[in-house]
Amino acid sequence: MNDHESKTRPKFRWIFLVAFALTLALLVALRRVEHSTKPALDVSPAGAGLLGVSGNSTDTERSPQVARSTAVANAPTAEQVVADKFLRFTRSRREVAREMARRKGVEVPDAVERFFDALESGNWSEINSQFASLSKSSRQYEDSTSADSPRLDPVWCAVLDAYGVAEQVHEWPAQKLLDYGNAILDSLRPGMVYVGGTDNGRWIPTLLNETSDREPHVLITQNALADGRYVEYMNTLYGDRFATLTEADSQRAFQDYVVDAQRRLEHDMQFPDEPKQLRFGEEVTKVDGKVQVGGQVAVMAINEKLLQALMAKNPDLDFAVQESSPLRGTYADALPLGPLMELEARDGQDGFTPERATQSLDYWRGVAQQVFSDPEAMASTYTLKSYSHDTVSAANLLAAHNFLPEAEAGYRLAVRLWPGNPESIGGLADLLARDGRDAEARQLIASFYKDHPDQRKDLDRVSATARIMGPVTITRP
Fold first, then answer.
1. How far apart are alpha carbons 397 and 339 in whole angstroms?
2. Which residues contact 269 (CB under 8 A, 6 or more apart)?
3. How far apart are CA 389 and CA 44, in angstroms?
4. Tell me, what DSSP letter sits at residue 283?
């Protein structure tokens, strides 16, 4: 999926195995995992059209009675609902930024206050411009510097949260945004911790979670757990509701990953004819006897370990996740939960039964049918990509539990939602190869390469079958 998630991370005093170059490599990789800046878009906001949000008004029951008709006419549109929620969220995040600055004994930088002013104005072009300027000093991107980081670090996560929400409000049709976020929040049981992954999976529920009348959930992201700044931010928001992470937790997760990566690297070097244990894209090398790791795969592996550590520190809480990258280490004890996965499902569950597999597939078939019958949803690339990605996650879980027919149907559904999704093609190709249907897998990959040549590297990244089969050609009847 075209994921452009937030990428926050401060300096860590990593263990002795890691050279300074390693820290920089992981820093850049983590930035790529979390969020990328977009060029400014020329949008004219006004009133309910805050940030250029679009869409139809919320569905309201119609009545022939004049009084009821008047009530319907006066009901707020989806655009007005989203605009109101966004303004409330922006103001709350400004206060969070100020609180975090007070804790550090610093002033909120003027540029940050101007950024929040732009958010309250609803001018997307100005919002994007202000954020682009701030991001250059955030140690967040490849071209970022650290010159202003001591002043920006204490408030950066609040800035990023506000921008992430603004971007989703700008990109999604208003009603589709509300539908997507409410489906997630409605699937959660009271007190459940929600772990968002993709931009839409993180920031749309964040907006609705904090601006609704319901009891708000603890809502975090899997992609920033290795970032000390984010851990402080998480503690500011939810420290009174659950046990957060410490620097010792981060160092332990990093050390465990490095030790395991070194073991797998040595295996691959000693036994070159055996299947590789290092994962594709996992950058692990040995320089002067020291292990160096980097890349997005390594970062997400560390984040997965930290998520597991966070769950272990909160044994009385239930966690549900919307994945960014697959967290395959969590699949064994996971169960479908509407659009999400429940991690380490508690006793009293019936386990991952065939009935649950069927229910999961039926859920996504119902979602897809609603999307296919909705012209506004079909016209929104963000909507289609988001639902396709989430359907792939469900299919990955089904495949991991050997529900292969249901998983295949899920992958094919995700392809229909977004034909250019390398995740759905890769998952389906791997499943076909696993089922001994190599010819079908080869044809599927060849067609995707032909129709989406710019996605070839992405398919190779997510599909072992695509990498093994290599260059392929379409066979003609």
1. 12
2. none
3. 30
4. E
Closest to 55 in 3D by CA, of 170, 149, 206? 170
The domain spans of the chain are 343-469
Q: Tell me which H or E stretch contains 255.
A: helix 247-270
Ordered alpha helix ranges (H), 172-246: 174-187, 199-209, 228-238
336 bridge partner residues: 341
- Sequence-distant (6+) residues with CB within 8 A of 218 are 193, 194, 238, 241, 242, 317
Q: 343-469 sits in which CATH class?
A: mainly alpha
DSSP 226: T
- Per-block mean pLDDT, blocks of 10 residues, the chain (477 long): 40 34 44 42 40 47 47 82 97 97 93 97 95 81 63 93 97 97 97 96 97 94 92 94 93 91 90 88 83 84 94 96 93 96 75 95 98 97 97 98 97 97 96 95 95 92 85 49
The three-state secondary structure class of 339 is: coil
- CB proximity list for 434: less than 8 A, separation 6 or greater: 404
pTM for the model stands at 0.83
